[in-house]
Design goal:
homodimer, 14 helices, 9-stranded mixed sheet, 557 residues, 5-stranded mixed sheet, 29% strand
Amino acid sequence: MLYSKLFGKTIREEPKGAKMTNHKLLYKAGFIRELSSGRYLLTTLGWQVLNKIIKVIDKQMIEIGSQRVATPTLHPLKLWQATHRDEAFGESLMRVKDRKNSEFAIGATHEAVMVEFVKKFKPSFKELPIVIHQFSNKFRDEIRARGGLIRLKEFLMKDAYSFAADEKEFMKTYEDQYNAYLKIAEKLKIKVVPVQADAGALGGDYCHEFMVLNSEGEDSFVVCKQCDYAANIEKAQGILSGQNLSEKELPLEKIKAKRGLNMDQMADFYKVPLWRLLKTVIFMVKEKPIAVLIRGDIEVNEIKLANILKTSNFRIPEPEELKKIKTVRGFVSPIGLKVDLFLVDQSVLTVKNLITGANELNQDYKNFNYPRDLKTAEVVDVAVVGQMFTCPKCKKGKLDSKRAIEFGHIFKYDHFYTKALGGKFINENGKENLLWMGAFGIGIERTMGIVVEENHDDKGIIWPESVAPFKAHLISLDKDNKKADDLYQKLEKEGIDVLYDDRDDVSAGVKFADADLIGIPYRLVVSKKTNNKIELKERLKDKTELLDLKDLIKKLK
Amino acid sequence: MLYSKLFGKTIREEPKGAKMTNHKLLYKAGFIRELSSGRYLLTTLGWQVLNKIIKVIDKQMIEIGSQRVATPTLHPLKLWQATHRDEAFGESLMRVKDRKNSEFAIGATHEAVMVEFVKKFKPSFKELPIVIHQFSNKFRDEIRARGGLIRLKEFLMKDAYSFAADEKEFMKTYEDQYNAYLKIAEKLKIKVVPVQADAGALGGDYCHEFMVLNSEGEDSFVVCKQCDYAANIEKAQGILSGQNLSEKELPLEKIKAKRGLNMDQMADFYKVPLWRLLKTVIFMVKEKPIAVLIRGDIEVNEIKLANILKTSNFRIPEPEELKKIKTVRGFVSPIGLKVDLFLVDQSVLTVKNLITGANELNQDYKNFNYPRDLKTAEVVDVAVVGQMFTCPKCKKGKLDSKRAIEFGHIFKYDHFYTKALGGKFINENGKENLLWMGAFGIGIERTMGIVVEENHDDKGIIWPESVAPFKAHLISLDKDNKKADDLYQKLEKEGIDVLYDDRDDVSAGVKFADADLIGIPYRLVVSKKTNNKIELKERLKDKTELLDLKDLIKKLK
């Protein structure tokens, strides 16, 4: 490919408002442009990389026996309704009616469609497990796109689905995918940490995410400093030791407290650590108030809360609504509160004589003790687990929390979808049984973004060879390009993919800077100075070497 | 691939209501299933073929210098509105709003998006022509899906777009695509006839369709029996010779005519040929009546009419509306008719003393002569051209009309899109000029359907090697499959794609029938009888031959 003819060129400016490296570099190097928020155009360079990522992933899927298929983007909405996934996805699922008023979901994921697909062939036990995958566009109307290619509203996904006769057969397909994800990440030079995770709107209760550490990531996970425990912050559990459990329970005492409204101000006021305080958070759940009690130094994990409540349909109350339940912001207290349900996080049991508000401005209670002062409550785990927790697995190591990007996610659904949709197989006795099912996803554009996040330096991208848009980047420093023209043709004839910067109206400096920005693995330079040889520099290394054509071809093949 | 593990199996029943061969065979052979009307699931076999078609087409695009890109499916609706394509597509364009109430079109074609894409890089004349293509899903909410894969509501399309500095540069890209289409068709063993066509809702006024003869096709085109003239029936022109122009114009005469309402009944009544009659067709155009006069043996071409009227927003009137303009069905006459516009087809000029209705039941006029009896009219070409016409190109040959399926369509838009959307390049003087633009489409699933229509026999599909799902279909006739297992592994090791029918619970007859149905190019049989050799039969031929392994591998590689 001649750079002069390449569709999509480098540019020195960064895209407006870009924060993440992949966004800045892919834009500047001419791989991507945004059509509208979260919907990207991929140039020639962009498509080359995307296509190579598809090939790497497809190969690994084929190797574990998955078969590639294709399915429509518009799904009859009733397939989503059968498992209430339309409600679970809420506004992020786009819907459309056709001219006959039939309702369709614009595919956000394909579980129900795949169950329908498998049903059409009434599989026998002999054919199982069925593992199928596709690369298909997914549509998720996120509230906000972010981070260049990291969170899109429309993106290509490798989504695989497995169907098995029993749990054991299913778990083999799950492990195959798990291992394939590790191999794919390795080939793409992405360092991943598999963590236990929450399935969210997709359903099921066992799943793993493959996380990539990144300070700008939207996700967080915790790891144990001593064992291999790792879990998404949404799912992570942890052990809290008692703080002052030897203290005697003192009598409740109402006191005047002209303090600020937040926990930090409250701790300052009393000159105590945050854990000494009781935090009572009100949520309106389907328009009814509930209260969650938690230790002052710990946050409420809304995913855990949604799983306990079996709905994500809840919100923070308006001031008017607080008034109705007889309390006031900053001074909420369980004592005398008019709510439909009290949930008490386990952390509350680790402290005696907590300080809490008193449902009136500038009034607090000292010495709140659970369960002495609140009889009708459920003890639950709704804590955002952090560094003060101990590992739930080895029960020794301290937990550490990391920011990360999700690279992939694998799900075990059991019969969640197949029961609702009648996904069955014929067993050895000729009878119908429900299929065990799972799903396994990798976002392709996001993967491209992660590869850049993981492989770059100050000058630009450093593509791993497996997904580089071209193998070599050829630069001519002579006024006439004869030597380079000749080399370009020879390399192309050998089947070596070359991006040849044939411009005669820019300086050598610009050409070198563009080569570093675009990030092709091997840079080749020819000029009068190189004589009959070619200067080769790997993008990853500093040193250059002079090679003759034969050795160069050997090196690049 | 082991047949026992293949996802998607053969079946003996035809799909309900199937009329076209591709529909019946692809369903029975297990390549496709319908998810909902016009939206198909592709099995492993189906995807293999689709993917190979993509590769054949992609290769030809790359060879003519096109660069592959990718663009979103949801387009800001304003991009469609800029050229009024939203109106032109009407209900077949699906629309959706996101959570922020922004309006999107679900991509039915990508012209406007591609102009936006090119604009983002402000191309200079040096980069031109820019030719880019993608394989992307298209969504068209057709009134009716039909013919298996022939007319879908959602399908993959190869759509290429070219942008050039001037008409000459553009025409080179148009010709490149034209020739590439012929090559692609050849590789896919599809016989195509390029014909001049109408651009319809896509805009522009110069385009070619690549037609495949098929008695079940939705399209028709005419060809000259003597020269190379070929045009879609929507676009075709023709020359009509005079019928009785030497006759003297006789005076108009109103007569009683207790006859049937249609042209055939009218001709019977008068015992004259149809061409002797004048047909006056009323259309309501944006709710106003117009009349089209045409010879009794010729139909009105509504596409030509739409192009003349510059709108496709017209319809046949209700009886009430006929009453208002002072006429009655079956006896419509231009004489005394209250309409806003008279259009007279050229064919009317080939006859003297026509018979027409008189706008009253059972009353006709004899001896209508244009222009004597109708002063204020426009003479136009709105005829459906057929066998009574002479070729407009060689002016000698008779025209012939054929039913066909459209395989591909290429469009020259001039500045139709780039003017409305500001698609410009920087010329040699640093000034901005509008880009010349064209688009070039091939529907991929439809192509798969056409390949089957063109390559099958009574027993099943006969895949051309270029797009066959596997190279060879291996059948074992022994009770134990040892010999076949061994051969399968050896062939796989050689990189030969084999579908191995390893079933032990079906007869040889079933295996042979399935092999013929699925249509893989080479059938291999091993059994005790074949000794150390392998029986090979080409799907296209009747004879079998016995080969040893070495010769077989040589043959299949």
